User: Fold this.
Amino acid sequence: MAQAVFGDTAAGEAVHRLMIGAGDLSVALLTHGATLNDVRLAGVAHSLTVGSPELAAYEGPMASCGAVMGPVANRIGGAAAMIDGVRHVFSGAHPDGYILHSGDAGFHRRVWRIADHAAAAATLTIDAPDGEGGFPGNRRVTARFEAFAPATLRLTLTAATDAPTILNLANHSYWRLDDAPTTEGHVLRIAADSYLPLSEALIPTGEIRPVAGTRLDFREGRIWAAGAEGQVDNNFCLSRTRTDLRPVAWLTGRSGVRMEMATTEPGLQVYDGHSLDLPQFPGNDGAPPVPYCGIALEAQGWPDAPNHPDFPSILLRPGEDWVQVTEWRFSRA
Assistant:
């Protein structure tokens, strides 16, 4: 078990870096955003995720890299939602009229508390007051990271509220399995028969469209084109409800490093990382992030669910159990 001060935020809050590991896996976590800062696999010389050794990066444009997004990850069209017949308006709207990753109330920009830390596990918590950013309910969220031999990382997210609210949490790590500037040439497979088409503002239209015959058909595994076939920022529909933990995505680098991702969630947002043009910050291995340097695979509920009654609900009521589990299982040839 190792713990060190990573830096102080602009507001003067101390941010800690926690190390956990088991078997061939070692993982660095940050209390800023409950962030997965670095993932290392024995025998592989490079980091498997996009991160930075500088706190300024996470207080700036790398805030989403590896963080737990909430209280509602992804977009909400109109920056508002009806909750039990009451319309709630959220702060921090984009000029196009939506909020992204909860606008001003985003958990990824907050410093979480350390609840416990051992050699192979750490638990972080955050409290969100009623009305913060327009979201109702006094809420408590817990993120528990656990490492298991030979090379598995599990994230269990739990939440509770004292008033009806909406909640859709997601880890927003960008994965890079090769020591290369971009993820071009990775092979991605996704266990999804359908996806959500988007408006020009990247809000789901409400249609649920089959992936068959489209460039988003990854059911048999496809070589990742890293932008050559157009940008990707879509939700893949895994199921209509939260389920038992099951594998949903497989990513393989040219180097032979492999990652299997399993989750309980009904959706997987896949984002190609085209906006990661950040020459002002070093990455985990020194070189700064560049467009398409990582693939975000975000297990979550379907985006904009409050505005689409036929989407899986993200409503959370007092007394209800809310548990999300995601695992990343690594290996190499």
